[in-house]
Each structure stands twice: as structure tokens, then as C-alpha cells.
Amino acid sequence: MNSAPAVTVPPMPTLMLEPLVRAALLEDLGRAGDLTTDAIVPADARGHTRLVARQDGVLAGLYLARLAFRLMDPDVEFTPALADGARLRPGTEIAVINGRARAMLTAERSALNFLCHLSGVATATASIADAIRPYGARVTCTRKTLPGLRAVQKYAVRVGGGSNHRYGLDDAVLIKDNHVAMAGGVRNAVERARAGIGHLVKIELEVDTLAQLDEAMEVGVDVVLLDNMDPATLRKAVSRVAGRAITEASGGITPETAPDVAATGVDLISVGWLTHSARVLDIGLDS
Asked: What are phi and psi of 270, to 5 degrees?
């Protein structure tokens, strides 16, 4: 990963994060609490620990980690050394934590689960964003998110230098091949969609061929999703669109193939594995 500058993204409100973190802690505490810690660690014992990166990557999820410790004990002192978006190296200190040892040990796994997963999403996003930076295209996520984690995963994508696609089914129209088939064709699908939405809602149409693209341009859409096209076909597609719609490429794109896709002139590259299959980033809680 190169030394691109950190991306500054406004933090999500605590009101949105607390239900996620509270649910994770309750799941871990189960019916009897932390049997191990409560039996071994004296109630008045205090601890001093550090969150430390063990891999190169991009930091994301710091606010959720802090909230995990604070929900177990509001008096825990969580002092960040960095902010979300920071580029990490092995050994980079992320935060220092002081407080009652029981609370710190009980919250550790939930805090790390959020932090390592979201940092993994941000790191995966940065791997694409860094690769396509010279071409002007942007990497975007999809709705292929883990249940319940969509908002924070999409936040992590932004932290990694990407942009967000739809948050759900209700904030844009995306007409895919099955919609076209059920409607009896591209024109019918687009015209029905346009008749059923408000004036602020954009319409995106997935196309697999240049013939479908030509039909899309005739009927008029805001965005065309160019699905599983090779770079040569993508270049032709971008040329045919000629700025009349936003162009989005998708389909099995990796950090290795992304530059060739971006070089075709597409505006966006959508990548589902950023959220559904990103590897966690190794971050530890060290004494």
C-alpha cells in the first residue's frame, strides 16, 4: 500500500453506533457475563493497554472500539493517537486505554471485532482507490454488505477513499436484468420506473451489451452499469455514452485489474467484495 494521504471523513453520530456496539457486547456477555475475567481479575484492578497495528492498512472503526470500552465502564480513558483514515504500519500505536481491568478485558473482543473488520474494509477500498488514482475514476461499494453493518461498512469505504452506492432499495432505482425481463424490455422498464418515482430519484440501468447500451441512451437514464465488460468493450461503451450518463463498471474487479478498467474512462468502479469479503486487518490490544 502506498503512502497516499489520509482521508478525512466525519464520524458517525454515537446515536447510530451505540445500538450496534451494545448488541455486540450483549451477545458476548450472554446470560452470565464474563465468567473468566470476573473470576480471575479483582474488581478494583486497573489496567493500561494499547491498540497496536500488526499490518499495513487503513484505520477505521475507532469510534466503535472506544464505545465498546465506554459502555462497559464510562470511566475508561480511551486516548486515540490517530484518527480514522490514518495509514498504518506494523507497530503503529492507535490508542492508549486506561481504566478498570475487568471492563477493558470484557470489551476487548467486541472492540477489536469492529476495529479489525472495518479497518479491513477501509484497507481493501484503499487498495483499489490507490490503484486507480491516476485515471480519475472512483471506487464505490454495493449493497453486498453484512446484515446489520451496512452503515458502518459504507462509512469504512469512505474512510478508505471510496464512495457509496445505494444505501438501500429506497434511495435510487437500479434496473437489473431480471427487472428488464419482467418488464418486457429496457424501454418498458425505464419508463415504468420513471413514472413511479419522484423528480429527485436517479435511475441506473444495468447493461451487458453495447446493443442494450444504445437502447438505454435512446430512452435516457442517469447512470449505466456496464456489467462484466472487458476493457476494449468498456472503451467503446464510454465513447458511445459520450457524457450523457455516468458510467459504472462492475464484475470481478481486483486491485490488479482496476487500473485497466479505470483507463477506459469510466466514472465509477463498483466492487462488492470490499464489504462482503474484505479480510480483517490485524490489530491487537497489547499491555
From this structure: -100, 135
Which listed residue (133, 144, 166, 194) is catalytic? 144
pTM equals: 0.94
**Known catalytic residue at 176:** yes
d(CA 34, CA 115): 21
Instruction: Name the 3-class secondary structure at 198.
Output: coil
Confidence of residue 198 (pLDDT cuts 50, 70, 90): very high
**What is the tens place of the pLDDT at every residue in 257-269?**
999 999 999 999 9
Catalytic residue, candidates 177, 214, 227, 282: 227
Q: Tell me the C-alpha distance between 124 and 118, whole Å.
A: 10
Give the mean model confidence (pLDDT) for residues 4-18: 88
3-state secondary structure (DSSP) of residue 52: strand
Tell me: pLDDT of 6 over 90: no
Please enumerate in sequence order all residues whose Cβ is within 8 A of that of 9, keeping only pairs 6 or more positions apart, or say none: 84, 85, 155, 158, 159
| Residue pLDDT, tens place only, 96-141 | 999 999 999 999 999 999 999 999 999 999 999 999 999 999 999 9
Q: Which of 109, 187, 192, 279 is catalytic?
A: 109
Q: Coil, strand or helix: which one is 4?
A: coil
What is the C-alpha to C-alpha distance for residues 118 and 262, in angstroms, rounded to an integer? 25
The CB density around residue 188, as the number of other CB atoms within 10 Å, is: 14
Q: Which cell goes with 129?
A: 482507490
End-to-end CA distance of the chain: 28
**Amino acid letter, residue 47:** G
**pLDDT (mean) for 201-216:** 96
DSSP 224: E
